């Protein structure tokens, strides 16, 4: 223990001297909560990396608090790490806190001020790094809040589980399978909090309905020729794909303008070109080009509506295009936000206690969606306020002040949720769900 304290003090002295931090910033830099976050950001957890160092780090965090940590790995390098924080009455339904281990790629060459896995702290008290606004931050927020409750000898009535999954940037079949396993069933989860997003003002966003995700593959065909010849572009595969792209771009621009007027992301479709497989060889114009588009559908747009729309683009582009569905995931249910749901009532009470307003919003799909689809009510919640949205962006960063306040917010939230009396919760958690608008 004394060795750890000496290491932390040494880090504080070196880091404060290095970053020219203001006196107000130094008090954040030298806290164990910030140091643990920096250590976790330092571990590369992109999909091409071995996640064992991250799993080992999480195990050490569990050991430091004397809580049980279980690792489930149905697929190689796709671990699911489970922290169990025992409640006073283990027979009651538990609370689950969901987050991810892995993060998206981040290239230093893209324009990062600091290396994206350094966890550097700027002199304006912001920590920079991939995962500072994403799931690494959320995982540590859950951990720190539960650690404080334990250190303050606050006994929770219900058991609380931290569930950290992986494979977030690809179809998460292993996660969906896990929610059907005996291991998960024995956890007896009655409610969960999962992925959310930061708020640019002092208002918490509570996500309870999830948009349908639809990823399409577009195969374009045309004449192959030498790259030394200047043929009619519309006769080439790339020209056909460009025509398709122009119709996509017109639709996207309409949705973008709609998003500027809307107060809820469920009102518009988010669609983006996300890449392709084009280059065959330098001296030939390819006869076949493959590109991908990812969409999150507005609640008033069904999958059939979207497919019909895209087929219209194909026809207008001149044909020679085939479409394939790569990913089709949807939220079937969403969680009630009224007095009949004791979990929602507990959250309202927590936000009132904290004197923070909140707003219910729509979100993209996440592990929370899959859990709700199994019949367990859940909300997305990322308790970070006054923070511009930079999730997965270049120079992703987070104010240390906002991070530490997020821990305090979750202390109150978790305490309220985990101490809901048995007689206030029904035996069947499905009673707190409603069929999603897009499925009616």
Could you explain the architecture of this structure?
By secondary structure, this protein is α+β, with helices and mostly antiparallel strands. The chain has twelve helices and 18 strands. The strands form five sheets. Strands 1-2-5-3-6-16-7-15 form an eight-stranded mixed β-sheet, sandwiched between helices. A four-stranded antiparallel β-sheet has the order 10-12-8-13, covered by helices on one side. Helix 3 (32-42) runs antiparallel to helix 5 (135-151) and helix 5 (135-151) crosses helix 12. The longest helix is centred in the middle third of the chain and has 25 residues, at 237-261. The chain starts with a helix and ends in a 5-residue tail after the last strand.
Could you give the topology of this structure?
Elements: H1 2-19, H2 23-29, H3 32-42, H4 52-65, E1 68-72, E2 80-85, E3 94-100, E4 126-128, H5 135-151, E5 160-165, H6 173-178, H7 182-185, E6 189-194, E7 203-210, E8 213-221, E9 225-226, H8 237-261, E10 270-277, E11 284-285, E12 288-296, H9 303-317, E13 321-329, E14 333-335, H10 342-354, E15 357-363, H11 367-373, E16 378-381, E17 397-399, H12 400-418, E18 433-435
Parallel strand pairs: 3-5, 3-6, 6-16, 7-15
Antiparallel strand pairs: 1-2, 2-5, 4-17, 7-16, 8-12, 8-13, 9-11, 10-12, 14-18
Q: What gap, in angstroms, lies between the N and C termini? A: 57 Å
Helix content: 25-40%
Oligomer: single chain
Instruction: Report the major sheet.
Output: 8 strands, mixed
Order of helices and strands: HHHHEEEEHEHHEEEEHEEEHEEHEHEEHE
